[in-house]
Amino acid sequence: MIHNHSSGKHGLLRKMLAVCIAFAMICSVSISAFSVEASSENTDETVQSVMTEEEGDPEAAEAETDSEQTPGEEQTEEPEVTPPEDNVENPDADNAEPTPSEDNEQPADPTVTEQPEEPTVTEQPTATPTQVEELEKDKADSEVQTQDAKAKWPTPTPASSTTYSGKAAIYYLANPAGDPWTNDTGAWAPAQETSNTIGNINTDGATWEDGYVGNTVYKEKNIKSNVSKYITSWPDGSKGTTWTVKRGDATTGSYFTFVLDSIWYNYKTAISKDTGIALRDLNKEDILEITLTPRKISRDNGGTYPYHIDCALSIKSKSVFTAKFWVKDPGETDYTQVDAKNYKTGDSVVETTKAEIGSTKEVNGIIYVLDGWYPENETGGAYKDQKITNWNYTPNATELADGTVNFYAHYTPLYTSVNIKKLVTGNMGDKSKPFHFKVSVVKGNTNLPFKIDKTQYTDPTEITLSDNQTTALTQVPVGATVTITEDNYSGYTTSCTIDGSASAGGRTATISNIQQNNENAAHEVTFTNNKEAIPDTGLNLGTTPYILALGIVALGAGLLLFGRRKRQS
After folding, report:
1. Which residue has the higher pLDDT, 125 or 333?
2. In the predicted model, what is the mean pLDDT of residues 97-101?
3. HSE, side-chain direction, 13 A CA sphere, residue 474
4. Domains present along the chain, CATH in parentheses
5. pLDDT score at 15
6. What residue spans of 276-368 are helical by DSSP H?
7. Residue 519: left (phi > 0), alpha (psi -120 to 50), or beta?
8. Is the pLDDT of residue 62 over 80?
9. Which residues, in sequence order, are CB contacts of 341 under 8 Å at separation 6+?
10. Which residues are registered as beta bridge partners of 379?
Protein backbone atom coordinates (compact mmCIF):
# COMPACT_ATOMS: atom_id res chain seq x y z
CA MET A 1 0.00 0.00 0.00
CA ILE A 2 2.81 2.30 0.83
CA HIS A 3 4.30 1.61 -2.53
CA ASN A 4 1.06 2.26 -4.29
CA HIS A 5 0.47 5.49 -2.37
CA SER A 6 3.94 6.71 -3.12
CA SER A 7 3.50 5.83 -6.79
CA GLY A 8 0.21 7.71 -6.85
CA LYS A 9 1.76 10.79 -5.34
CA HIS A 10 4.61 10.79 -7.87
CA GLY A 11 2.20 10.42 -10.72
CA LEU A 12 0.13 13.31 -9.45
CA LEU A 13 3.20 15.48 -9.08
CA ARG A 14 4.29 14.70 -12.60
CA LYS A 15 0.87 15.60 -13.93
CA MET A 16 0.81 18.88 -12.03
CA LEU A 17 4.31 19.71 -13.22
CA ALA A 18 3.31 18.99 -16.81
CA VAL A 19 0.25 21.23 -16.48
CA CYS A 20 2.40 24.08 -15.11
CA ILE A 21 4.93 23.75 -17.89
CA ALA A 22 2.17 23.67 -20.50
CA PHE A 23 0.53 26.72 -18.95
CA ALA A 24 3.82 28.61 -18.97
CA MET A 25 4.36 27.76 -22.62
CA ILE A 26 0.83 28.80 -23.56
CA CYS A 27 1.37 32.14 -21.84
CA SER A 28 4.64 32.62 -23.67
CA VAL A 29 3.01 31.83 -27.02
CA SER A 30 0.10 34.08 -26.21
CA ILE A 31 2.37 37.02 -25.44
CA SER A 32 4.32 36.55 -28.72
CA ALA A 33 1.15 36.09 -30.73
CA PHE A 34 -0.36 39.17 -29.12
CA SER A 35 2.62 41.29 -30.03
CA VAL A 36 2.43 40.07 -33.62
CA GLU A 37 -1.32 40.59 -33.75
CA ALA A 38 -0.88 44.14 -32.53
CA SER A 39 1.22 44.94 -35.56
CA SER A 40 -0.71 42.97 -38.22
CA GLU A 41 -3.81 40.77 -38.35
CA ASN A 42 -2.43 38.96 -41.38
CA THR A 43 0.69 37.96 -39.45
CA ASP A 44 -1.46 36.53 -36.67
CA GLU A 45 -3.26 34.33 -39.16
CA THR A 46 0.08 33.12 -40.47
CA VAL A 47 1.29 32.26 -36.92
CA GLN A 48 -1.86 30.32 -36.15
CA SER A 49 -1.55 28.40 -39.41
CA VAL A 50 2.04 27.48 -38.66
CA MET A 51 1.15 26.37 -35.16
CA THR A 52 -1.61 24.13 -36.42
CA GLU A 53 0.45 22.50 -39.16
CA GLU A 54 3.50 21.74 -37.05
CA GLU A 55 2.16 20.85 -33.58
CA GLY A 56 2.51 17.13 -34.29
CA ASP A 57 6.32 17.26 -34.45
CA PRO A 58 6.96 18.44 -30.88
CA GLU A 59 4.57 15.79 -29.55
CA ALA A 60 6.56 13.06 -31.24
CA ALA A 61 9.80 14.45 -29.87
CA GLU A 62 8.41 14.54 -26.35
CA ALA A 63 7.24 10.95 -26.67
CA GLU A 64 10.75 9.83 -27.55
CA THR A 65 12.30 11.44 -24.50
CA ASP A 66 9.74 10.18 -21.99
CA SER A 67 8.79 6.57 -22.66
CA GLU A 68 6.97 6.22 -19.30
CA GLN A 69 4.20 8.65 -20.27
CA THR A 70 0.71 7.19 -20.47
CA PRO A 71 -1.71 8.01 -23.29
CA GLY A 72 -3.45 10.42 -20.98
CA GLU A 73 -0.22 12.17 -20.21
CA GLU A 74 0.54 12.58 -23.93
CA GLN A 75 -2.82 14.31 -24.39
CA THR A 76 -2.04 16.63 -21.51
CA GLU A 77 1.28 17.64 -23.01
CA GLU A 78 -0.16 18.07 -26.59
CA PRO A 79 -0.77 21.83 -26.23
CA GLU A 80 2.95 22.43 -25.96
CA VAL A 81 3.91 24.73 -28.88
CA THR A 82 7.54 25.42 -28.25
CA PRO A 83 8.64 24.79 -31.85
CA PRO A 84 5.95 27.01 -33.33
CA GLU A 85 7.18 29.72 -31.00
CA ASP A 86 10.41 29.67 -32.96
CA ASN A 87 8.42 30.02 -36.24
CA VAL A 88 6.66 33.06 -34.90
CA GLU A 89 9.98 34.80 -34.79
CA ASN A 90 10.82 33.83 -38.34
CA PRO A 91 8.17 36.05 -39.89
CA ASP A 92 9.45 38.83 -37.74
CA ALA A 93 12.90 38.21 -39.10
CA ASP A 94 11.53 38.07 -42.65
CA ASN A 95 9.71 41.31 -42.16
CA ALA A 96 12.88 42.84 -40.89
CA GLU A 97 14.89 41.92 -44.00
CA PRO A 98 14.09 45.10 -45.93
CA THR A 99 15.69 47.17 -43.20
CA PRO A 100 19.40 47.92 -43.68
CA SER A 101 21.71 45.14 -42.53
CA GLU A 102 25.16 43.92 -43.21
CA ASP A 103 23.81 41.32 -45.63
CA ASN A 104 21.89 43.93 -47.59
CA GLU A 105 24.67 46.45 -47.68
CA GLN A 106 27.21 44.09 -49.24
CA PRO A 107 25.53 43.71 -52.68
CA ALA A 108 24.92 47.42 -52.82
CA ASP A 109 28.60 48.22 -53.18
CA PRO A 110 29.11 46.27 -56.42
CA THR A 111 26.02 47.88 -57.88
CA VAL A 112 27.59 51.28 -57.47
CA THR A 113 30.92 50.25 -58.91
CA GLU A 114 29.31 48.59 -61.94
CA GLN A 115 27.67 51.75 -63.24
CA PRO A 116 29.84 52.84 -66.19
CA GLU A 117 28.97 56.50 -66.51
CA GLU A 118 28.84 57.59 -62.87
CA PRO A 119 32.59 57.10 -62.34
CA THR A 120 33.14 59.15 -65.49
CA VAL A 121 31.56 62.08 -63.75
CA THR A 122 33.06 61.61 -60.33
CA GLU A 123 36.51 60.52 -61.36
CA GLN A 124 37.49 63.63 -63.28
CA PRO A 125 40.75 64.60 -61.65
CA THR A 126 40.94 67.92 -63.44
CA ALA A 127 37.27 68.86 -63.19
CA THR A 128 36.46 71.86 -61.12
CA PRO A 129 33.63 71.81 -58.58
CA THR A 130 31.67 74.00 -60.95
CA GLN A 131 32.04 71.50 -63.80
CA VAL A 132 30.98 68.59 -61.62
CA GLU A 133 27.97 70.51 -60.38
CA GLU A 134 27.06 71.46 -63.94
CA LEU A 135 27.26 67.85 -65.12
CA GLU A 136 25.03 66.64 -62.30
CA LYS A 137 22.57 69.44 -62.99
CA ASP A 138 22.46 68.54 -66.69
CA LYS A 139 21.62 64.94 -65.89
CA ALA A 140 18.97 65.92 -63.35
CA ASP A 141 17.35 68.38 -65.75
CA SER A 142 17.33 65.74 -68.49
CA GLU A 143 15.60 63.21 -66.23
CA VAL A 144 12.98 65.75 -65.19
CA GLN A 145 12.34 66.65 -68.81
CA THR A 146 11.82 63.04 -69.79
CA GLN A 147 9.44 62.36 -66.89
CA ASP A 148 7.43 65.50 -67.57
CA ALA A 149 7.23 64.74 -71.27
CA LYS A 150 5.92 61.21 -70.70
CA ALA A 151 3.38 62.42 -68.15
CA LYS A 152 1.99 65.09 -70.45
CA TRP A 153 1.91 63.16 -73.71
CA PRO A 154 -1.69 63.12 -75.01
CA THR A 155 -3.63 60.05 -76.03
CA PRO A 156 -3.86 59.47 -79.77
CA THR A 157 -6.94 61.22 -81.08
CA PRO A 158 -7.84 62.51 -84.57
CA ALA A 159 -6.65 66.07 -85.10
CA SER A 160 -8.83 68.98 -86.03
CA SER A 161 -9.00 69.87 -89.70
CA THR A 162 -9.24 73.58 -89.15
CA THR A 163 -6.57 75.99 -90.30
CA TYR A 164 -4.53 77.58 -87.53
CA SER A 165 -2.77 80.92 -87.52
CA GLY A 166 -0.89 82.02 -84.42
CA LYS A 167 1.89 81.13 -82.01
CA ALA A 168 3.69 77.82 -81.85
CA ALA A 169 6.34 76.60 -79.42
CA ILE A 170 9.65 75.53 -80.92
CA TYR A 171 11.15 72.17 -79.96
CA TYR A 172 14.25 70.47 -81.29
CA LEU A 173 16.01 67.12 -81.21
CA ALA A 174 18.01 66.56 -78.07
CA ASN A 175 20.49 64.61 -80.19
CA PRO A 176 21.25 66.11 -83.62
CA ALA A 177 21.49 62.57 -85.02
CA GLY A 178 17.96 61.71 -83.83
CA ASP A 179 14.81 60.97 -85.84
CA PRO A 180 13.17 64.29 -86.78
CA TRP A 181 9.77 62.75 -87.63
CA THR A 182 9.04 60.90 -84.42
CA ASN A 183 6.32 62.28 -82.13
CA ASP A 184 7.97 60.72 -79.08
CA THR A 185 8.43 63.64 -76.70
CA GLY A 186 11.38 61.86 -75.09
CA ALA A 187 13.40 62.62 -78.27
CA TRP A 188 12.74 66.36 -78.10
CA ALA A 189 13.98 69.23 -75.97
CA PRO A 190 13.23 71.11 -73.81
CA ALA A 191 10.72 69.44 -71.51
CA GLN A 192 7.12 70.02 -72.53
CA GLU A 193 5.70 73.39 -71.55
CA THR A 194 9.18 74.80 -70.84
CA SER A 195 10.13 76.20 -74.27
CA ASN A 196 10.81 79.93 -74.32
CA THR A 197 11.27 79.97 -78.10
CA ILE A 198 7.93 80.90 -79.64
CA GLY A 199 7.40 81.35 -83.37
CA ASN A 200 4.37 82.05 -85.54
CA ILE A 201 2.72 79.78 -88.10
CA ASN A 202 -0.14 79.80 -90.59
CA THR A 203 -1.21 76.32 -91.71
CA ASP A 204 -3.59 77.43 -94.44
CA GLY A 205 -3.40 74.97 -97.34
CA ALA A 206 -1.19 72.49 -95.49
CA THR A 207 -1.63 68.72 -95.70
CA TRP A 208 -1.69 66.96 -92.33
CA GLU A 209 -0.05 63.55 -92.27
CA ASP A 210 -0.02 60.73 -89.73
CA GLY A 211 2.58 60.73 -86.97
CA TYR A 212 3.99 57.92 -84.91
CA VAL A 213 5.48 56.94 -81.58
CA GLY A 214 6.93 53.48 -82.04
CA ASN A 215 4.12 51.43 -83.55
CA THR A 216 1.39 53.83 -82.40
CA VAL A 217 -0.08 55.98 -85.18
CA TYR A 218 -1.44 59.48 -84.57
CA LYS A 219 -3.88 60.46 -87.29
CA GLU A 220 -3.27 63.72 -89.15
CA LYS A 221 -0.68 64.77 -86.59
CA ASN A 222 2.04 66.51 -88.64
CA ILE A 223 2.83 68.81 -91.52
CA LYS A 224 5.94 67.29 -93.15
CA SER A 225 6.03 68.74 -96.67
CA ASN A 226 7.50 72.19 -97.31
CA VAL A 227 7.34 72.97 -93.59
CA SER A 228 9.11 76.33 -93.71
CA LYS A 229 6.34 77.65 -95.99
CA TYR A 230 3.98 77.67 -93.02
CA ILE A 231 6.34 79.43 -90.57
CA THR A 232 5.60 83.13 -90.73
CA SER A 233 8.31 84.22 -88.26
CA TRP A 234 10.94 82.90 -85.87
CA PRO A 235 11.21 83.99 -82.21
CA ASP A 236 13.48 86.94 -83.05
CA GLY A 237 11.08 88.13 -85.76
CA SER A 238 13.23 86.89 -88.64
CA LYS A 239 11.93 84.91 -91.59
CA GLY A 240 13.55 82.12 -93.54
CA THR A 241 13.70 78.40 -94.12
CA THR A 242 16.06 77.94 -91.14
CA TRP A 243 16.91 79.81 -87.95
CA THR A 244 20.48 80.19 -86.66
CA VAL A 245 21.34 81.23 -83.11
CA LYS A 246 24.91 82.21 -82.23
CA ARG A 247 26.95 82.43 -79.07
CA GLY A 248 27.25 86.00 -77.85
CA ASP A 249 25.04 87.40 -80.61
CA ALA A 250 23.08 90.48 -79.54
CA THR A 251 19.84 89.21 -81.08
CA THR A 252 20.02 85.44 -80.75
CA GLY A 253 22.59 84.94 -77.98
CA SER A 254 20.00 84.33 -75.26
CA TYR A 255 18.21 81.80 -77.45
CA PHE A 256 21.54 80.09 -78.13
CA THR A 257 22.18 79.71 -74.42
CA PHE A 258 18.72 78.32 -73.77
CA VAL A 259 18.88 75.79 -76.61
CA LEU A 260 22.37 74.61 -75.69
CA ASP A 261 21.56 74.26 -72.00
CA SER A 262 18.42 72.24 -72.74
CA ILE A 263 20.22 69.68 -74.95
CA TRP A 264 23.68 69.63 -73.43
CA TYR A 265 23.46 66.44 -71.37
CA ASN A 266 21.82 64.33 -74.11
CA TYR A 267 24.01 65.89 -76.78
CA LYS A 268 27.36 65.21 -75.13
CA THR A 269 26.26 61.71 -74.14
CA ALA A 270 25.51 60.93 -77.80
CA ILE A 271 28.75 62.55 -78.94
CA SER A 272 30.78 60.50 -76.46
CA LYS A 273 29.07 57.29 -77.58
CA ASP A 274 29.63 57.93 -81.32
CA THR A 275 33.14 59.36 -81.20
CA GLY A 276 34.71 57.89 -78.07
CA ILE A 277 35.51 61.34 -76.68
CA ALA A 278 35.36 61.31 -72.88
CA LEU A 279 32.52 63.30 -71.37
CA ARG A 280 35.00 65.40 -69.38
CA ASP A 281 36.66 66.49 -72.62
CA LEU A 282 33.45 67.91 -74.15
CA ASN A 283 33.01 71.59 -73.39
CA LYS A 284 30.14 73.95 -74.06
CA GLU A 285 32.64 76.58 -75.15
CA ASP A 286 33.35 74.48 -78.29
CA ILE A 287 29.82 75.13 -79.55
CA LEU A 288 29.73 78.27 -81.72
CA GLU A 289 26.30 78.29 -83.32
CA ILE A 290 23.19 76.18 -83.75
CA THR A 291 20.97 76.07 -86.83
CA LEU A 292 17.36 74.94 -86.44
CA THR A 293 15.77 73.42 -89.54
CA PRO A 294 12.01 72.77 -89.29
CA ARG A 295 11.15 69.17 -90.12
CA LYS A 296 7.51 69.13 -89.12
CA ILE A 297 4.71 71.09 -87.49
CA SER A 298 2.77 69.00 -84.97
CA ARG A 299 -0.56 69.72 -83.32
CA ASP A 300 -2.82 68.54 -80.49
CA ASN A 301 0.10 68.57 -78.05
CA GLY A 302 -1.85 70.10 -75.17
CA GLY A 303 -0.73 72.91 -72.89
CA THR A 304 -0.45 76.61 -73.64
CA TYR A 305 0.93 76.04 -77.15
CA PRO A 306 -0.65 72.89 -78.64
CA TYR A 307 1.09 73.61 -81.96
CA HIS A 308 4.83 72.87 -82.14
CA ILE A 309 7.54 73.63 -84.68
CA ASP A 310 9.78 70.56 -84.45
CA CYS A 311 13.31 71.20 -85.69
CA ALA A 312 16.43 69.26 -86.49
CA LEU A 313 19.72 70.74 -85.28
CA SER A 314 22.97 71.48 -87.02
CA ILE A 315 25.56 72.27 -84.35
CA LYS A 316 28.77 73.99 -85.34
CA SER A 317 31.50 72.80 -83.01
CA LYS A 318 35.28 72.96 -82.85
CA SER A 319 35.58 69.27 -82.01
CA VAL A 320 32.82 67.30 -83.77
CA PHE A 321 30.40 67.27 -86.71
CA THR A 322 27.32 65.30 -87.73
CA ALA A 323 26.79 63.31 -90.95
CA LYS A 324 23.21 62.72 -92.12
CA PHE A 325 21.90 60.50 -94.92
CA TRP A 326 18.66 61.38 -96.73
CA VAL A 327 16.54 59.39 -99.20
CA LYS A 328 13.69 60.57 -101.42
CA ASP A 329 11.18 57.84 -102.16
CA PRO A 330 9.39 57.45 -105.53
CA GLY A 331 6.76 60.09 -106.05
CA GLU A 332 7.84 62.15 -103.02
CA THR A 333 9.06 65.72 -103.09
CA ASP A 334 10.92 65.69 -99.77
CA TYR A 335 13.85 63.68 -98.48
CA THR A 336 13.59 61.48 -95.39
CA GLN A 337 16.49 61.02 -92.97
CA VAL A 338 17.50 57.35 -92.85
CA ASP A 339 20.69 57.54 -90.80
CA ALA A 340 22.91 59.96 -88.87
CA LYS A 341 26.08 59.75 -86.84
CA ASN A 342 28.47 62.09 -85.05
CA TYR A 343 32.16 62.24 -86.00
CA LYS A 344 35.29 63.86 -84.64
CA THR A 345 36.59 66.81 -86.63
CA GLY A 346 38.93 65.53 -89.33
CA ASP A 347 37.41 62.04 -89.53
CA SER A 348 36.01 60.57 -92.74
CA VAL A 349 32.37 59.56 -93.07
CA VAL A 350 31.52 55.90 -93.55
CA GLU A 351 28.77 55.05 -96.05
CA THR A 352 25.54 54.15 -94.30
CA THR A 353 24.15 50.63 -94.38
CA LYS A 354 20.59 51.82 -93.71
CA ALA A 355 19.92 52.32 -97.44
CA GLU A 356 21.32 50.07 -100.21
CA ILE A 357 22.34 51.71 -103.45
CA GLY A 358 20.90 49.73 -106.37
CA SER A 359 17.86 48.54 -104.44
CA THR A 360 14.54 48.84 -106.26
CA LYS A 361 10.93 49.68 -105.49
CA GLU A 362 7.88 49.21 -107.72
CA VAL A 363 5.19 51.87 -107.59
CA ASN A 364 2.15 51.78 -109.88
CA GLY A 365 3.84 49.32 -112.20
CA ILE A 366 7.04 51.36 -112.56
CA ILE A 367 10.31 50.06 -111.11
CA TYR A 368 12.53 52.60 -109.34
CA VAL A 369 16.16 52.19 -108.36
CA LEU A 370 18.17 53.97 -105.66
CA ASP A 371 20.89 55.20 -107.93
CA GLY A 372 23.61 56.60 -105.60
CA TRP A 373 24.71 59.14 -102.96
CA TYR A 374 25.18 62.77 -103.87
CA PRO A 375 26.87 65.47 -101.75
CA GLU A 376 25.08 68.63 -100.75
CA ASN A 377 25.42 71.77 -102.82
CA GLU A 378 26.04 75.28 -101.57
CA THR A 379 22.33 75.87 -100.92
CA GLY A 380 21.94 72.73 -98.86
CA GLY A 381 20.34 70.60 -101.55
CA ALA A 382 21.76 67.72 -103.56
CA TYR A 383 24.21 67.91 -106.41
CA LYS A 384 22.53 65.95 -109.20
CA ASP A 385 25.62 65.36 -111.31
CA GLN A 386 28.32 64.60 -108.75
CA LYS A 387 27.64 61.09 -107.55
CA ILE A 388 29.99 59.89 -104.82
CA THR A 389 31.87 56.79 -105.95
CA ASN A 390 34.65 56.58 -103.37
CA TRP A 391 34.05 55.94 -99.67
CA ASN A 392 35.08 56.78 -97.01
CA TYR A 393 34.21 60.43 -97.66
CA THR A 394 36.03 63.45 -96.23
CA PRO A 395 33.76 66.52 -96.16
CA ASN A 396 35.18 69.91 -97.09
CA ALA A 397 34.94 73.17 -95.18
CA THR A 398 31.93 74.36 -97.19
CA GLU A 399 29.96 71.24 -96.38
CA LEU A 400 30.80 71.63 -92.68
CA ALA A 401 29.96 75.33 -92.51
CA ASP A 402 26.95 74.63 -90.26
CA GLY A 403 28.44 71.60 -88.49
CA THR A 404 26.48 69.04 -90.52
CA VAL A 405 27.35 67.30 -93.79
CA ASN A 406 24.41 65.85 -95.72
CA PHE A 407 24.26 63.06 -98.29
CA TYR A 408 21.30 62.57 -100.61
CA ALA A 409 19.97 59.64 -102.59
CA HIS A 410 16.78 59.34 -104.59
CA TYR A 411 14.90 56.69 -106.47
CA THR A 412 14.86 57.10 -110.22
CA PRO A 413 12.59 55.12 -112.55
CA LEU A 414 14.20 52.42 -114.60
CA TYR A 415 13.62 53.47 -118.19
CA THR A 416 14.60 52.26 -121.62
CA SER A 417 13.78 53.46 -125.14
CA VAL A 418 12.56 51.98 -128.44
CA ASN A 419 13.35 53.27 -131.94
CA ILE A 420 10.62 52.47 -134.50
CA LYS A 421 11.88 52.57 -138.10
CA LYS A 422 10.00 52.28 -141.43
CA LEU A 423 11.37 50.83 -144.70
CA VAL A 424 9.52 50.56 -148.03
CA THR A 425 10.88 48.16 -150.66
CA GLY A 426 9.86 46.75 -154.05
CA ASN A 427 9.57 48.28 -157.53
CA MET A 428 6.00 49.25 -156.83
CA GLY A 429 6.54 50.39 -153.20
CA ASP A 430 5.42 53.93 -152.55
CA LYS A 431 8.23 55.58 -150.58
CA SER A 432 6.26 58.76 -149.99
CA LYS A 433 3.23 56.98 -148.60
CA PRO A 434 2.49 57.49 -144.84
CA PHE A 435 2.02 54.29 -142.90
CA HIS A 436 0.10 54.30 -139.61
CA PHE A 437 0.98 52.48 -136.37
CA LYS A 438 -0.64 52.01 -132.95
CA VAL A 439 1.68 52.00 -129.91
CA SER A 440 0.86 50.84 -126.37
CA VAL A 441 2.92 50.38 -123.18
CA VAL A 442 1.25 48.29 -120.48
CA LYS A 443 1.97 46.20 -117.40
CA GLY A 444 -0.75 43.70 -116.73
CA ASN A 445 -3.95 45.62 -117.37
CA THR A 446 -2.44 49.02 -116.55
CA ASN A 447 -1.34 51.53 -119.16
CA LEU A 448 2.03 53.06 -118.31
CA PRO A 449 3.37 56.44 -119.36
CA PHE A 450 5.96 56.91 -122.10
CA LYS A 451 7.16 59.72 -124.30
CA ILE A 452 7.35 60.42 -128.02
CA ASP A 453 9.68 63.33 -128.54
CA LYS A 454 8.77 65.61 -125.60
CA THR A 455 5.12 64.62 -125.35
CA GLN A 456 4.06 62.14 -122.67
CA TYR A 457 1.37 59.55 -123.37
CA THR A 458 -0.34 57.08 -121.10
CA ASP A 459 -3.02 55.60 -123.28
CA PRO A 460 -2.25 53.85 -126.57
CA THR A 461 -1.48 56.35 -129.31
CA GLU A 462 -0.90 56.43 -133.10
CA ILE A 463 2.18 57.41 -135.07
CA THR A 464 2.82 57.84 -138.80
CA LEU A 465 6.00 56.91 -140.65
CA SER A 466 7.15 56.96 -144.26
CA ASP A 467 10.09 55.25 -145.84
CA ASN A 468 13.33 55.58 -143.89
CA GLN A 469 11.74 57.56 -141.05
CA THR A 470 12.25 56.75 -137.34
CA THR A 471 10.27 57.63 -134.22
CA ALA A 472 11.73 57.14 -130.74
CA LEU A 473 9.73 56.00 -127.72
CA THR A 474 11.51 57.28 -124.61
CA GLN A 475 11.05 56.83 -120.87
CA VAL A 476 9.59 53.40 -121.44
CA PRO A 477 9.33 51.75 -117.97
CA VAL A 478 11.46 48.65 -117.52
CA GLY A 479 9.30 45.57 -117.08
CA ALA A 480 6.49 46.83 -119.30
CA THR A 481 5.15 45.20 -122.47
CA VAL A 482 5.55 47.34 -125.60
CA THR A 483 3.27 46.57 -128.54
CA ILE A 484 3.53 48.24 -131.99
CA THR A 485 0.98 47.31 -134.66
CA GLU A 486 0.94 48.58 -138.27
CA ASP A 487 -2.29 48.99 -140.22
CA ASN A 488 -2.98 46.49 -143.03
CA TYR A 489 -2.16 47.81 -146.50
CA SER A 490 -3.30 46.00 -149.66
CA GLY A 491 -0.56 44.96 -152.02
CA TYR A 492 2.13 45.21 -149.37
CA THR A 493 3.85 42.41 -147.57
CA THR A 494 4.77 43.50 -144.04
CA SER A 495 7.49 42.06 -141.82
CA CYS A 496 9.35 43.33 -138.76
CA THR A 497 12.47 42.71 -136.72
CA ILE A 498 13.22 43.39 -133.03
CA ASP A 499 16.84 44.16 -132.22
CA GLY A 500 17.85 42.53 -135.51
CA SER A 501 15.86 39.33 -135.04
CA ALA A 502 12.82 38.54 -137.15
CA SER A 503 9.51 38.82 -135.36
CA ALA A 504 6.79 36.25 -135.88
CA GLY A 505 4.14 38.91 -135.55
CA GLY A 506 4.19 40.22 -139.13
CA ARG A 507 2.40 43.52 -138.71
CA THR A 508 2.80 43.42 -134.88
CA ALA A 509 6.00 43.72 -132.85
CA THR A 510 5.75 42.82 -129.14
CA ILE A 511 8.50 43.22 -126.52
CA SER A 512 7.42 41.58 -123.27
CA ASN A 513 9.02 42.55 -119.95
CA ILE A 514 11.29 45.03 -121.65
CA GLN A 515 14.69 45.55 -120.05
CA GLN A 516 17.62 47.90 -120.51
CA ASN A 517 20.16 46.99 -123.15
CA ASN A 518 23.88 47.18 -122.50
CA GLU A 519 24.85 50.78 -121.80
CA ASN A 520 21.11 51.47 -121.96
CA ALA A 521 21.13 51.47 -125.76
CA ALA A 522 17.73 51.82 -127.42
CA HIS A 523 15.82 48.79 -128.66
CA GLU A 524 15.42 48.75 -132.47
CA VAL A 525 12.13 47.75 -134.14
CA THR A 526 12.05 47.91 -137.95
CA PHE A 527 8.95 47.48 -140.11
CA THR A 528 9.46 46.68 -143.82
CA ASN A 529 6.68 47.00 -146.39
CA ASN A 530 7.41 45.39 -149.77
CA LYS A 531 5.45 45.74 -153.03
CA GLU A 532 6.47 44.31 -156.38
CA ALA A 533 4.89 44.80 -159.98
CA ILE A 534 3.38 41.65 -161.65
CA PRO A 535 4.58 41.29 -165.41
CA ASP A 536 1.90 40.82 -168.11
CA THR A 537 2.02 37.57 -170.20
CA GLY A 538 -0.65 38.43 -172.92
CA LEU A 539 -3.64 40.54 -173.91
CA ASN A 540 -6.96 40.25 -172.37
CA LEU A 541 -9.26 40.78 -175.38
CA GLY A 542 -12.32 40.88 -173.32
CA THR A 543 -11.39 44.26 -171.96
CA THR A 544 -12.41 47.51 -173.60
CA PRO A 545 -8.98 49.15 -173.67
CA TYR A 546 -7.46 46.33 -175.60
CA ILE A 547 -10.41 46.20 -178.08
CA LEU A 548 -10.04 49.88 -178.77
CA ALA A 549 -6.31 49.48 -179.23
CA LEU A 550 -6.86 46.61 -181.69
CA GLY A 551 -9.39 48.67 -183.64
CA ILE A 552 -7.01 51.57 -183.91
CA VAL A 553 -4.26 49.28 -185.16
CA ALA A 554 -6.58 47.72 -187.73
CA LEU A 555 -7.77 51.09 -188.95
CA GLY A 556 -4.23 52.31 -189.27
CA ALA A 557 -3.25 49.27 -191.26
CA GLY A 558 -6.24 49.67 -193.59
CA LEU A 559 -5.45 53.27 -194.30
CA LEU A 560 -1.84 52.43 -194.99
CA LEU A 561 -2.85 49.71 -197.45
CA PHE A 562 -5.38 51.89 -199.22
CA GLY A 563 -2.81 54.69 -199.62
CA ARG A 564 -0.24 52.35 -201.10
CA ARG A 565 -2.71 50.96 -203.75
CA LYS A 566 -3.75 54.45 -204.74
CA ARG A 567 -0.19 55.50 -205.45
CA GLN A 568 0.42 52.35 -207.54
CA SER A 569 -2.55 53.04 -209.74
Report:
1. 333
2. 37
3. 9
4. 2-96 (no CATH), 128-318 (no CATH), 326-413 (no CATH), 415-530 (2.60.40.1140)
5. 66
6. none
7. left
8. no
9. 177, 274, 322, 323, 349, 350
10. none
